[in-house]
Amino acid sequence: MNRVDLISVGTRNAFRALATNIPQNTVASFWEDEGFVAVDQLDYDDSSVRRVTFQTYAAAVDWTDINHVQRALRAFEWELKWLARNAYHNDSDFDGVWERLDRDGLALDANHNITWKHPKGLEHSLASLNDASGIRDEIDRAHQTLLTDPAGAIGASKQLIEATAKYVLTELGVPLGKNPDLPDLVKSAQQALHLHPSTVNGIGPDGAGGLRKILGSVSTIAIGLAELRNLGYGTGHGHAKSPVGLGVRHARLAVNAATTWCQLLLDTLADPKAPWRNAAATSSSSTTQPQPQIQSPDNAHSTHAAAQGDSL
Known about the structure:
Radius of gyration: 23 Å
Strand content: under 5%
Shape: globular
Helix content: 55-70%
């Protein structure tokens, strides 16, 4: 799978434009303080030596690498702080930067600090996907409603797991079936990636009994979220009465649990040494190896009972 940039070209260009108002040596120092070295050969032409200086360092960044990006963001912060302190900017300039950062999943506070709106590790996981838009939509929805709409956050957490499972299965060529329910999606996605207790084998940590226990617990996350939502504590179904006693702590638990499940699957999907890859290679050379199948609600056995059995 192709890795995509964590910071868009538009955002990088916006910060390059801001460098016009900063002395050349200062621009260079922001990058060098974060450990970057300017590239020798640069295919970039600009009338501003300051923007060119910015670009020689920006070209040295691997924008798909979370560690590189974190350092580059600190250089961006130094740039914003310098401009604010010296008043070499218009408020509209910062508004444009804020909008671009927001679109990239980043937040800019009043002190010009840049932070991820979602966990950094998850952003790194999403960078490995060909198209993370569906998953990102649910992550954004979950975090945006966390403090103001706990039921909405719980509903979005359930949908985040569903979107992730469908992405994994589609990438691996596993048929989704007709109207699969969440527990079956989750089980099939984990089985396909050898992350289900029933598929854990081999040597090393991937075959350890301790991992089997952890994966059994992870498998129940999606079941618990689906049940919580169906009981009326999450959006997605109409209910006669509003949920009573639901608070931010419940929503945060749901969002964090769903994020953990999502990151586990995406990291395993992208890992070139993950056990599922060896199994997939073996399967491709044999026509008798069955692929995981997803049951539809019509022919599935009791989802709750199955989930309990699978997690033991």
